[in-house]
Write a structure and sequence with these properties.
It comes from Pedobacter westerhofensis. This is Transposase domain. It holds the Pfam family DUF772. Residues 16-93 form the Transposase InsH N-terminal domain. With 96 residues, the protein is mainly alpha-helical. Helices cover 48% and strands 0% of the residues. The chain contains 5 helices and no strands. The radius of gyration is 18 Å and the shape is extended. The protein has helices spanning 26-33, 38-43, 57-70, 75-84, 86-93.
């Protein structure tokens, strides 16, 4: 009799991204040492007061930095790349 595996998504009741990124990972070290909070003050005047909220300037800078470090020049490829890497998602997720 031929067997068949039925795939079903599993519901994670507890998942912590930080526990999945190794301590020696470059993006973990960047997150722990790089303080980009000054970007909020420095870019505040460049944003309007009306309309939809923009992307967080710290996250935007981190995306650009990731593109530089990974040698990715296409915005679409960068977003696709970042969505597939847990260490990069961990790095992007903080606005320290």
């Amino acid at each position: 009799m031929q067997g068949r595996k039925d795939y079903t998504e599993k519901l994670f009741t507890s998942f912590q991204l930080s526990s999945r990124v190794p301590k020696e990972n470059l993006y973990r070290k960047l997150r722990e040492t790089l303080d980009l909070s000054f970007l909020y003050k420095d870019t505040k005047e460049l944003y309007g007061k009306t309309g939809n909220p923009s992307i967080d300037p710290v996250v935007f800078f981190k995306l650009l930095l990731t593109g530089y470090l990974e040698n990715i020049t296409s915005d679409r490829k960068l977003v696709e790349h970042c969505s597939m890497r847990m260490d990069v998602l961990y790095f992007l997720g903080s606005s320290k």
